[in-house]
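Worked example 2:
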Amino acid sequence: MPVRTSTAGKRRSTARRVWLPQWSAWPALARLVPPRLTGATPTLIWVWLAVVGAATAFMWIFGDSWWPATVLLFGPRWILLVPALPLAGAAALVRPRLLLVVGLGLIVTLGPMMGFHVGWRRWLGSSGGVGLRIITFNVGGSENPQMETVPAALELYHADAIVLQECLPRLIEPRLWPPGWTMRQSEGGLCFGSRFPILGVETLKRVGTGDQGGTGNAVLFRIQAGTDTIAIAGVHLETPRKGLSSLRNAGNASRMPVNLLIRDVGASRISRWLLTEPRALIIAGDFNMPVESRIYRRYFGDCTNVFSAIGFGFGWTRILKRFSARIDHVLICSGGRPVHIEIGPALGSDHRPVIVDLVRSH
């Protein structure tokens, strides 16, 4: 009597096989996996996902408000990616459906934890308006051997205004800049240049705190762009390095709470000074904090961070040997809309220039 083969059974069998590569050696490889590893793989994958989620929440909730989370905020977050590849390989061999869990962990790690952006907002809205290109760059002070080549390198981007931090007096010499540019230097190594006339300069005096640094530097420049007056603020906030270095070098976290307090007070002072007066305002500079920082979100979170809005990738602006961070920002607080952002090349500093295009209303 002929044997019938169920069509439904064939479909179920095909559905089960679709998870595995159509490679004849795959079942043999799967049989080589030790039974103990086969049983432990799901547990390891779920534990890794839980660690990734907990670390991300911990960083966002407590980063720059409690020093252990601040260590994570300014540390090599990519470490959480390391288990992904072996876990994905183990899942593919013993239980392919767990690849979905690994994929979820990768999304959380690359996105909320490491700050990857896709920049989808740049496709929204009309392109009408008058364009303005701004560059911000921490030139690295006396440690930059290419200091005097910076103006020529930045000239290639045809900016309308440039904000520089750790800027030395020789960097604003007219011979280094294009004809028609006006350059100014203020306290704390902040420099500003524009091809438009500079109407006025206001400075917020820094409050020093001895070997712990100070409350940061901020300068407000007003330029005349056609019929419009535009306010552009250059800022350089206190670094977390003064707290982190003692922890890294001596294993002593006693300086971390003081450093957090100073940085919080400094950001509060600069934010109140710049944002209490209604005006079309752009803030650019070295904030010394990423967007995940609670200090950043508390005092500058109402402004549009250009990279967060339209940038693609990680947007790292400070490049170190073991990890990098996005701590240089351009914010639009009113009077404009971002349309383009890019991170410039290495120019002798451990920071990278940030080039931003925005449109402003007529």
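DSSP finds eleven helices and 14 strands in the chain. Residues 10-25 have pLDDT under 50 and may be disordered.
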